[in-house]
Amino acid sequence: MKKIAVYPGSFDPITNGHVDIIKRGLRMFDELIVLIAHNPNKKTLFTVEERLGMIREVIRDCKNVRVDSFDGLLVEYVKGAGANVILRGLRALSDFEYEFQLALINRRLNRDVETVFLMSGFKWFYTSSKIINEAASLGGSVKGLVPEIVNLKLQEKYSYKGGIL
Questions:
Q1: What is the pTM of this model?
Q2: Ramachandran angles phi, psi of 69, nearest 5°
Q3: Number of domains in the chain
Q4: Mean pLDDT, to the nearest integer, of 113-141?
Q5: Domain limits at 97?
Q6: Residue 30 near residue 1 (C-beta atoms within 8 A)
Q7: Quick check: is 160 in a domain?
Q8: CA 120, CA 21: separation in Å to the nearest integer?
Q9: Of the candidates 144, 5, 122, the residue with the CA atom closest to the CA atom of residue 64
Q10: Distance of CA 67 to CAs 35, 36, 54, 129, 134, Å?
Q11: Does residue 46 belong to any structural domain of this protein?
């Protein structure tokens, strides 16, 4: 039986830390679905279509990875995709409490779905989409923290604001 995991997130934008989790996740699972999950509490910089395009470009050389989006309960998507694992990345202790709460509610909603946590690679420990967006919006360089296509898209988004990217 194929081991399929779903790696959900807003990916606004995808970072090198996300890419690290994807590549390491592929060592554990036969197939990985990178899922842009709608979070009504987050205001996003990029549209879902833009994020789908960037992720597909970034992972184009990764076999057994699909990219999708979903607006609903994560456990429903997981079940419908034929998966039973949610893959999540953890950076710091502060991530754990929130992720633990999500894992518990998902487990309550569907007992057949497990959550697997992967620690972020040390190099990406302090990298987050939010921090990257903040730095880029103020003209800071995020080169090396995000894939090159993402760096270019961030420059396009913020160039009209007079940033010095």
A1: 0.92
A2: -135, 155
A3: 1
A4: 91
A5: 4-125
A6: no
A7: no
A8: 7
A9: 5
A10: 6, 8, 10, 18, 26
A11: yes
